[in-house]
Design goal:
Helices cover 33% and strands 21% of the residues. By secondary structure, the protein is of the alpha+beta class. A two-stranded antiparallel ribbon has the order 1-2. The protein is built from two helices and two strands; from the N terminus they run H-E-E-H. Helix 1 runs antiparallel to helix 2.
């Protein structure tokens, strides 16, 4: 969701799952309801990635979490 403090909350969810953020990009959105933020993160393995994604999905401001290939 596009609201104040969302970037900080999402970044906190990632780091609290013990992942390292190496890149952040935000796309322009014509909608005031939602924003797209892409994070490049370092994880140990697929299990660790799954834990990070679960942590993000538990955040009420997050609408969708997807993985893209690097």
């Amino acid at each position: 969701k596009n609201s104040k403090g969302v970037l900080a909350k999402v970044a906190s969810s990632i780091t609290s799952a013990d992942a390292n953020i190496v890149q952040v990009a935000m796309e322009d959105s014509f909608s005031e309801a939602a924003a797209t933020i892409r994070f490049g993160i370092q994880v140990k393995d697929r299990v660790h990635l799954a834990r990070v994604m679960r942590s993000l999905r538990g955040n009420s401001e997050v609408v969708r979490v997807t993985r893209t290939k690097s």
